[in-house]
Every structure is written in structure tokens, then in C-alpha cells.
Amino acid sequence: MRPFTIISDILFHPSKFFTKIKSERGFADSFTFLAVWLLISVVLSTAIGYAMQPIVDELLAKYLGEAAPQEPVAFEWALAIGLGYPLGLLLSFVSAALLHVWILIFGGKADYVKSYQLYVYSRTPDLLFSWIPIINFFVWIYSFYLLIVGTQRVHGIRQSTAILMYVVPAVLLFIIAMVFVFIAVTMPGVLLDPLMPFLVELHQSA
């Protein structure tokens, strides 16, 4: 299938798409898909980060009470691409393995190759749009939805189980995150004081 046809099917006809990939063999197609779109995503995300760094530096400088650096270091951002991209490709196999084990616990029927395909294709919204800061949350929600649909179709798990096996851990993680946010807002010293020497050193070396 052509790349944009794949994307269209994933985004707008996920049930049909994940049923169809049962006939896809090996890692080649899914890995190639990930390699292309992850590269684009990493480059765009890095470009956005590079453009916004002066704003972040200024806010950090106001908090620390020191002058902000005048320009971001381009080499550091280029290094981020050089390291982040291959690391992302490598970790895709690790993440898919963890996903596969989790699915097997709930009665998944397919093998690791199918779990890898499921992992990659369910990340399509994230690969395409995560570099846009404002819509990150909605991108994550739709990727989450695709993972649920894909798990049903690829592994033959019923809908209620597929929903609960992902929603319950996600809710628990959300609660934990909210606790940290609450602590950061109401008692910032608890979280920031241990990090302050590192932040000052990082700011001074920028």
C-alpha cells in the first residue's frame, strides 16, 4: 500500500485497516513506515524546540534571576536528532515487546511481529502531529483509541477487555501525574529544590 493510503486507512478506517494487516508479513513494511515518519517527526519537533528555546530560556532566566542566553546552540539540537532518531527506532522493538507481553496477559492470540505492527501503526497520529504543541493531548487520545481498536482486531481480544486493559493503567498514571502537579503547584520546593543546582549549572553552560 502507498504511504498516504496507509495513513488514510489508519486514521479514518482503523477497524478495517487492523483487520487487513493480519496478512502483512514480517517487520519490513511497518519498520519502514516508522523509519520515514519518525524521521520527519523528530526533525519537525527539533525545529519547533529550537525556535522556542529563546522563550524558554527567558522564562527560566526570570525564575533564576539571571540573564538569558542570547541564542540557542544549534549543535545541541542537531545532536538531539542524531541520537533521538536511531534511539527511537531501537526502542520501538522494546516498546512493542512490552506491549506484546501485556496483551498476552489478557489473552492475546497473535505473535510478536503482529504486536510490533500494532504498536507502529497505532502511533500514526503521534508520528504525524505530535510536533504541534497545542494538539498533543488530542493526538495521544486518538493514538490510544487506535491501540484499543488494533488490539481487538489483531489479537482477537473482545472490546471490553481491550478498553479496560489500557484505560485502567492510563487512569492510574494520570492520577499519579496529577499528584505530582499538585505538589509542584502547592509545594514547589519539594520538587524543585533538589533540581535547582542542576538547573543553574545547565543554564550557565547554555
What does this structure look like?
- The protein is an all-alpha fold.
- The chain has one domain (3-159).
- It is 81% helix and 0% strand.
- It contains ten helices and no strands.
- The chain has helices at 3-12, 14-20, 28-64, 74-105, 112-122, 124-129, 136-155, 159-186, 188-192, 196-205.
- Helix 2 (14-20) packs across helix 7 (136-155).
- It is globular and about 60 Å long.
- The N and C termini lie far apart (46 Å).
Counting DSSP H or I runs of 4 or more residues, the number of helices is 10
**Helix-strand category:** mainly alpha
Rg over CA atoms, rounded to whole Å, is: 20 Å
- Terminal CA distance reads 46 Å
| Estimated helix fraction | over 70%
Mean pLDDT: 84
The strand count comes to 0
Q: In percent terms, what proportion of residues is strand?
A: under 5%
Number of domains: 1
Sequence of secondary-structure elements: HHHHHHHHHH
Describe the global form.
globular
Unreliable stretches, pLDDT < 50, 5 or more residues?
Answer: none
The largest β sheet comes out as: none
